[in-house]
Amino acid sequence: EDLVVRLPRREIAVELLARELTWLPRIAADTGVPVPVPVHHGTAVPCVHDGPWAVLPWTAGTVALDAPPEERDRHAAELGELLRRLHVAAPEDVPANPAGRGGPLAGITGRLQERLDWARQTGVLVRGKAEAAAVVVQEGLTAPVHGGPDVWIHGDPHAGNTVLGPDGPVLVDWGDLGRGDPASDLGWAWEHCTAPARPHFWELSLIHI
Fold first, then answer.
1. 73, 196 in Cβ contact below 8 A?
2. Per-residue pLDDT tens listing for the chain (209 residues)
3. DSSP category for residue 47
4. Are 197 and 76 in contact (CB under 8 A)?
């Protein structure tokens, strides 16, 4: 009742699980952020699962993706505080995010352009919106590069990876963890919070940015 089993279903997820097993205990020790530290590392089991797996504590609460906007807004300050605590200098041997998150936007310019082109062609971004998005991307590319130390980053803090628990929000699914620019995690504010609640998020999350 208080445990969960992590079973990678794709080859790429094997590496992501390995990151969790290696670094979650260190994140917990370095930051004090509540994380599901693995309690058991499993190996392949014939006829059951052909790769590594793990047992972690179950995180009780409501997945933020399933919560109404007003409930997520009530946690805005706590979300900011959680990131402020997480974004402390990371050890040099922590690997960077495998998808380039936490690094300069210049490193993923090609992918950004591909996504913008796809959004235009499929109508996800209608005329005017697509151009506005391109301007934002360009502003990001010309913005100053992060000048502080590389910090711990979650790498994928979206509403489906956030549990609103009785003691506050908890981030789960740490397979994209790494070190880098803390701004990488700040997209959380736009997905979790409505405009009136975002100042509460910024107030606490930007201390180390």
1. yes
2. 899 999 998 888 898 999 999 999 999 999 999 999 999 999 988 888 888 999 999 999 999 999 999 999 999 999 999 999 999 999 999 999 888 889 888 888 888 889 888 988 998 888 888 888 888 888 888 888 888 899 999 999 999 999 999 999 999 999 999 999 999 999 889 889 999 999 999 888 875 44
3. T
4. yes
Q: In what order do the strands lie in the sheet with 53-57?
A: 3-6, 53-57, 40-42
* pTM to 2 decimal places: 0.88
Could you tell me how many helices (H) and strands (E) the chain has, helices first? 7, 8
Which amino acid, one-letter code, is at 185?
D
CA distance 170 to 61: 9
Report the C-alpha gap between 62 and 1 in whole angstroms: 16
Q: Match 């969960």 to its residue by tokens.
A: 4
Backbone angles phi, psi at 79, to 5 degrees: -65, -45
**Checking DSSP bridges between strand 40-42 and strand 53-57, what pairing results, if any?**
antiparallel
Conformation bin of residue 158: beta by default, left when phi > 0, alpha when psi is -120 to 50:
beta
Question: How far apart, in whole angstroms, are the C-alpha atoms of residue 125 and residue 128?
Answer: 8
Q: How many CB atoms lie within 10 A of CB 90?
A: 25
> Which residues, 6+ apart, have CB-to-CB distance to 52 below 8 Å?
8, 14, 17, 18, 21, 41, 42, 43, 44
